[in-house]
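Please fill in the sequence for the structure shown.

STRUCTURE ENCODING:
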């Protein structure tokens, strides 16, 4: 049996997906127009971020609260 893959476009794309798509298009254009503005993230910054979120715990399997949905 041969493995097969397929791609299907979602027929019910919500506003969130549209906003995300617009942002990604903007980001791609900006990166193309201003590649000189791209900066790498240094190790010190990564360590600072890790320290800031070290006590943050998220249960990705927990249902959202009604006010967060």
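FILLED IN BY: designer on duty
SEQUENCE:
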């Amino acid at each position: 049996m041969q493995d097969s893959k397929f791609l299907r476009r979602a027929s019910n794309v919500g506003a969130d997906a549209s906003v995300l798509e617009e942002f990604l298009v903007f980001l791609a254009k900006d990166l193309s127009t201003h590649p000189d503005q791209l900066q790498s993230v240094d190790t010190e910054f990564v360590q600072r971020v890790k320290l800031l979120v070290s006590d943050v715990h998220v249960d990705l399997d927990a249902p959202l609260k009604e006010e967060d949905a």
